C-alpha cells in the first residue's frame, strides 16, 4: 500500500479591508508628503489633521482606530488625506 502525502499552501485571500489598505498604501507611497489624515463618519468630522499609521486593514491615530473594511471613500491631497466612513 502506498501513501502519498502532499502539502498544499493555503491560498491567502485578502479581505476587502486589506485590499483597500493596499490601495491606500500605494497612494501614500506615491505621495510621501502626506503625513496627516482627517476622518469623517457619516459625513461628520470626527478627527482632523492627525498623524496616523496603517497596519493591516486598520488606521490608527492618537484618538482611535479605524477599520478600512468600513471605508466608503478616501481623498488624497498634497500633504494630507481624508477618509470617509
UniProtKB/TrEMBL annotation:
Name of the protein: Uncharacterized protein
Amino acid at each position: 500500500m502506498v501513501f502519498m502525502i502532499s502539502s498544499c499552501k493555503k491560498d491567502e485571500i485578502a479581505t476587502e479591508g486589506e485590499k483597500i489598505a493596499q490601495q491606500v498604501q500605494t497612494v501614500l507611497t506615491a505621495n510621501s508628503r502626506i503625513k496627516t489624515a482627517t476622518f469623517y463618519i457619516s459625513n461628520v468630522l470626527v478627527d482632523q489633521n492627525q498623524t496616523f499609521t496603517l497596519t493591516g486593514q486598520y488606521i490608527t491615530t492618537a484618538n482611535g482606530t479605524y477599520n478600512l473594511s468600513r471605508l466608503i471613500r478616501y481623498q488624497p491631497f498634497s500633504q494630507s488625506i481624508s477618509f470617509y466612513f
